[in-house]
Design a protein that fits this description.
2 copies of one chain form a homodimer. With 284 residues, the first copy, chain A, is an alpha/beta fold. Chain A folds into 2 domains: 172 residues, 3-Layer(aba) Sandwich (Rossmann fold), CATH 3.40.50; 91 residues, Pantoate--beta-alanine Ligase, Chain: A,domain 2, CATH 3.30.1300. In chain A, 38% of the residues lie in helices and 21% in strands. Chain A is built from 10 helices and 10 strands. In chain A, β3, α3 and β4 form a beta-alpha-beta unit. The radius of gyration of chain A is 19 Å and the shape is globular. The interface between A and B is medium-sized, with 30 and 30 residues.
């Protein structure tokens, strides 16, 4: 396994693969890898000749009041996991390598960031799109793998790939959960024991919502208000949003038809957690 | 010479070149080609195995009050010129091919658009960056050629290539002029006979400014105010801007040192024309 800290070195590795006609699966991460990331790596490994993984805590997707400085990091553990899973290249740049002096260019999809996480984190997706496009340009993947816990991120990136005429596939991968249902997240490391128990409220609200939709409920307001009630019963939880959007333009919908995303963001103490389920009419 | 109206077709041609190891020079244009474009094509031809040229009047770089609808077009003449100059591929898409339904993603460099054309055309460079990045992604050039008449555009695109980690070179090419000094522009076709004479005032102001700098003037205010006086003497001319910026961040400078851009935009009747000169300290 190669570890590249510079763009030049990463490109060298990737070009040597490309010149031999090998396909490349990319797993972009902010490190502190968990079983969710491992599932992306395994999928990338199955579908491609080589796997590149990036570890980069991207400053431009954090607002000044957010957790950039304390975001958990453990590169040695990440690197051992990657090696054991057969990753061929870890790209692990410093911020200045990605954002050199005078940096001025950003990618945006403002219309897709009006709801869900985009509303409470107005510069977040600009940072995500910019860094992911850079990673695509540097690592030239055939396919790139993203977990559906960050569902809004996935749909915005998919739109970017179409809009900017990028010749690669973005592959959505299912949410991986703890045995009790909590969606895996590097931010779960922030939770105290009591917060860890309280955090289950996201999964609880979503499974009840999904059950009601499965039983025939199509009214978003009903679904949202039932979820809000469940969140409100947990003293350590504070709702950021509970929303229902269609997956093309990510606009709020009153009726749950076609492909629909039901999503939550909830503060558990100081820690902001997100979770969701994706509904397709033909699930019925 | 191939003519591609779809992204799929263009990519097919370009990939067949790439697979044979050929280098590609790209000349992005809005068509209605003149000797300025021809000079870019010749340079691209000299430095690359194949030349691709795009003809696309890009709607996203025009504001609603601008001249999108009446922008001059003559694809047959363009195509004959390209063929005679040895262009290998013309990419000539319809707007819907470039901006499909639901299009939402844009590239921006807001800090570089605060002065010069960016101030009077606040959405212009967003449109330029977005379409040029798409052209880069579709046509995979080794080098892309841009005329320095659009100097701000060149410096913003150069910044984009660095910032987004694109693996290609943008090549600046000198302004081509009529024998009397008027910079070539497809928009010169809008000028009446008397306006055509009046349009010389841009070149006149700039050559006098350059002469004063060459003679040792380093005060931007002096240079700008001398240019404004010359423009004011022409009854058909109305100044949009006369500014002096450094070429890295495109911020206004008081002193003409290092690499500096002295630029003008002037309305001649209804037609907005631009021109400039680039000053490097080692010109002296």
């Amino acid at each position: 396994m190669e570890i590249a800290e510079t763009i030049v070195k990463a490109r060298e590795v990737v070009r040597s693969w490309r010149s031999r006609g090998l396909s490349i699966g990319l797993v972009p991460t902010m490190g502190y890898l968990h079983e969710g990331h491992a599932s992306l790596i395994r999928r990338a490994k199955e579908e491609n000749d080589q796997v590149a993984l990036s570890v980069f805590v991207n400053p431009t997707q954090f607002a000044p009041n957010e957790d950039l400085a304390k975001y958990p990091r453990d590169f040695q553990r990440d690197s051992a996991l990657c090696s054991s899973l057969g990753v061929g290249l870890i790209f692990h740049p410093e911020p200045l390598e990605m954002y050199p002096s005078g940096f001025a260019t950003y990618v945006e999809a403002p219309a897709l960031g009006l709801n869900l996480c985009g509303r409470s984190r107005p510069t977040h997706f600009r940072g995500v799109l910019t860094v992911v496009l850079k990673l695509f340009n540097i690592l030239e993947p055939t396919r790139a793998y993203f977990g559906l816990k960050d569902a809004q991120q996935f749909f915005i990136l998919k739109r970017m790939v179409t809009d900017l005429s990028l010749d690669l596939a973005v592959v959505p991968c299912p949410i991986i959960r703890e045995s009790d249902g909590l969606a895996l997240s590097s931010r779960n490391a922030y939770l105290s024991e009591s917060e860890r128990r309280a955090a289950l409220v996201l999964h609880k609200a979503l499974t009840q919502a999904e059950a009601s939709v499965l039983a025939g409920e199509t009214n978003s307001l009903q679904v949202v208000s039932a979820m809000k009630k469940i969140i409100a019963q947990e003293p350590l939880a504070k709702l950021d949003y509970a929303e229902v959007v269609e997956t093309k333009g990510l606009t709020l919908v009153n009726e749950i038809v076609g492909e629909t995303l039901v999503a939550l963001a909830v503060y558990i103490g100081q820690t902001r957690l997100i979770d969701n389920f994706l509904w397709k009419a033909n699930n019925k």
